[in-house]
Protein: 3'(2'),5'-bisphosphate nucleotidase 1
Amino acid sequence: MYGSVPLIVRLLASSVSVANRAGKIVRDVMSKGELGIVEKGKDDYQTEADRSAQRCIVASLAAQYPNLKIIGEEDSLEDEGEVVSDWLVNEIDKEILKLQCPPNLQEVKEEDIVVWVDPLDGTSEYTQGFLEHVTVLIGIAVNETPVAGVIHQPYYKNIVEGDKKIGRTIWGLHGVGVGGFTPAPPPESIVITTTRSHSNPVEAEEALKVMNASKVLRVGGAGYKVLQLLEGNASIYVFASPGCKKWDTCAPEAILSAAGGKLTDILGNFYKYGANVTKPNKTGVLAAVNNELHSYALERIPEKLQETLANK
Ligand SMILES: Nc1ncnc2c1ncn2[C@@H]1O[C@H](COP(=O)(O)O)[C@@H](O)[C@H]1OP(=O)(O)O
Ligand SMILES: [Mg+2]
Ligand SMILES: [Mg+2]
Ligand SMILES: [Mg+2]
Structure:
């Protein structure tokens, strides 16, 4: 079915449906109240929601697209076999299927794609009750570049046709644009968004000071921070330290760039998202909704800080 629709569009449409299901899993685990927190490392936690949402996403996509390379944050789960049948999603979002695939992506094959999955971005915030910061991220990279992606917000409250609804799904596709929300222009004065739970070392705080910002918005998750840019609440996303990984930035970068923005490291270089790259984004994150704001930020980052991160 839908075989005539180019693969990249089908995969994005499946990712939207799968992310919605994963978001419900995230809510269900929280309402049951048994988070099953495991400490993976310093300031690095995993909950039952991270584990179950990962299983749902990976199993659902692998069943439909068997030759796809899928890399998930929680890949090292020991009991990978345990997937509840109710988690296997084969629905496909009909609205996304209608998108006109840009010519340069029409011939993309499963072998050219790496899907980067962050089943729950903002785990610290999830465990601390900052639920609106939590997102589910599915990023689609073709030949190392993020070209499509989904950011799902399980706790976003909206009213659709008079009814209260929970959750929304933002998508982006290069050459087509973005959807699932209303983009807004950046704020009049510079507003920075940065981490709230992974403390910036002193030299990284320096990167915030030099931006001359009127406000610093400290929120959790890479997905939620990029949404702050897209919705006009912040101008620049600065994280001048290691800690983020490819699954944190792939979907946000795809959507931001589909909207005309830019996400790079602190040196201004793009990350690569091929199957064999190292997972950590060791040289930080610098992102903005347009090239002008990105250049404004990049020019101000102290060279010494760039050197420190590059040599880590
Ligand atoms: N030191 C770190 N250790 C583990 N994950 C990190 C670290 N720093 C950032 N991250 C990941 O990047 C996301 C964005 O970081 P921050 O909110 O600090 O700006 C975090 O939600 C977390 O993703 P996750 O919650 O999926 O583990
Ligand atoms: Mg994590
Ligand atoms: Mg994450
Ligand atoms: Mg995560």
